[in-house]
Write a structure and sequence with these properties.
By secondary structure, the chain is an all-beta fold. The chain contains 1 helix and 9 strands.
Length: about 140
């Protein structure tokens, strides 16, 4: 059961919660277009929880075969993912009890993010990382 949820495809809903460089959303997702983005949430869950991202990565066969994502909650690293598969999947970070405080900063870092321009695939200078559909805080099953 979700404790908190943000749908990144709906700009009027998610714009107040995000900081950094993000592509405008489309029907499928909202892309990060830099190596660091931030998300704010008012979650105040006291027990251990899971932070679930339904997302996909910018991958180019032979040029960018994987993307790493580092997840922090209020300055504490709670997960690292290595995305090697195309398509939307769920990525789960375990958040320890007591880490949420009602005014939370979630940081996502994409050390492998590359622009199509840097990969020789046109003139687009945006550093493509993660295509996010939703972020959900839930209690573990």
């Amino acid at each position: 059961m979700p404790v908190d949820r943000i749908d990144f495809r709906i700009p009027a809903v998610n714009d107040p919660y995000i900081k950094g460089f993000w592509q405008q959303p489309d029907a499928q997702s909202r892309w990060t277009v830099t190596r660091h983005v931030e998300i704010r949430t008012a979650c105040n869950e006291k027990s251990p929880s899971e932070l679930v991202f339904t997302a996909g990565a910018y991958l180019i066969a032979g040029k960018l075969p994987k993307q790493r994502v580092v997840v922090k909650v209020n300055g504490n690293e709670v997960g690292q993912f290595e995305l090697k598969q195309a398509g939307m999947l769920d990525y789960v970070a375990k958040v320890p009890a007591g880490l949420w405080n009602g005014n939370n900063l979630i940081e996502l870092d994409f050390p492998d993010a590359q622009s199509p321009q840097a990969l020789g695939l046109g003139n687009d200078p945006r550093q493509m990382g993660f295509a996010l559909q939703t972020m959900t805080v839930r209690k573990p099953a």
